[in-house]
Amino acid sequence: MALGKTIVATLVTSAAVISLVPGAAAHEPTRFRACTVQAPGSCFSRGAAFVYGDRVVIRGKVEPRHAGHVARVLRRDPGSADWVVVGTVTVSDRGTMRFAWRTTRRDAVQDAPYLFRFRIPGHGVSDRTEAFVLFGE
Asked: What is the pLDDT of residues 93-126, one digit of tens each?
């Protein structure tokens, strides 16, 4: 009987500790945004355009804040139906994320955008944002 009480006490204590750990339980964001920085202070979900060689910056914000969680950065290349993980970022204390991508000539596609979004495994995915990479010629 003493063993049974010990097991129950251990389970109750473990459940109490887990419930105190922030982010221990999977919860979906009420708001999860992504945007592309066109110029300092601006952020667009559509129509941001860059010339190859530029640095494309993708920002995200999640509410409630998932501080310390690691978000995957997903990109869908022009003409593709597949989302590919191109990096990871840690969510800040304010619930923000930032990812930078240095483009090359090989990335330039005149007529279709790259699509980006953030995913926090077990919690949710942001809306998508787009970035055109142009030849500039």
From this structure: 999 999 999 999 999 999 999 999 999 999 999 9
Q: Exposed, middle or buried by CB within 10 Å (0-12, 13-18, 19+), for 28?
A: exposed
* Cβ-contact 17, 10 below 8 angstroms: no
DSSP letter, residue 31: E
Residues 80, 90 contacting (CB under 8 angstroms): no
Q: What is the DSSP string of 99-121?
A: EEEE--GGG-EEEEEEEEEEEET
Run of H or E including 134: strand 129-134
Of 38, 41, 36, the closest CA to residue 59 belongs to 36
Q: Which residue has the higher pLDDT, 14 or 115?
A: 115
Residue keyed to tokens 């022009």: 78
pTM score? 0.80
* Concatenated DSSP letters of 32-97: EEEEEESSTT--BSS-EEEETTSEEEEEEEEES--TTPEEEEEEE-TT----EEEEEEEPPTTSEE
More confident of the two residues 16 and 74: 74
